């Protein structure tokens, strides 16, 4: 697994969907994950260290773990299946490590409160990660005997770059203040986090 940090929480201008962007430590590789508006707000509140009058859901979970002498060791994004991300809470209890199934958004909201590492399975990063520098570079040649890459690879690179450019153009930093759109309030929470809206 590779360790990541939360780079930013953003909102799409086209459909108001929230996205948390994870950045690999010591590398310029990013993993965007679509999340619900309430989870995005919970993550942002913790990142900005905003004090709230009463405990929110993720504060409650953190307090429960502490009350029962359990310790959150790390959170993980362990798999990507059918465009759905799967996560784990790794909790130490009575000297044993216990893995608890979790949506990545909830795991991240808890991780920023408990200040624990965030890990992503290498396979997930290879599948869904974005490396801007690599996508923007022209293919390298090592000498006269090197042949140009097949057309299919060129088309794939251009398509990946186009998707990434569209992704950046349709995003703005979301301060996730209390005045959320009515449209967001009417949306049900997704059962799982998905990298694509509507999944």
Automatic annotation (TrEMBL):
Residues 185-199 have a biased composition (Basic and acidic residues). It comes from the Bacteria. It holds the Pfam family BFN_dom. Gene3D superfamilies: Bifunctional nuclease domain. One of its GO terms (molecular function) is nuclease activity. Residues 1-132 form the BFN domain. InterPro entries: BFN_sf (IPR036104), Bi_nuclease_dom (IPR003729). Residues 131-159, 171-199 are annotated as: Disordered. PANTHER family: VON HIPPEL-LINDAU DISEASE TUMOR SUPPRESSOR, VON HIPPEL-LINDAU PROTEIN. This is BFN domain-containing protein.
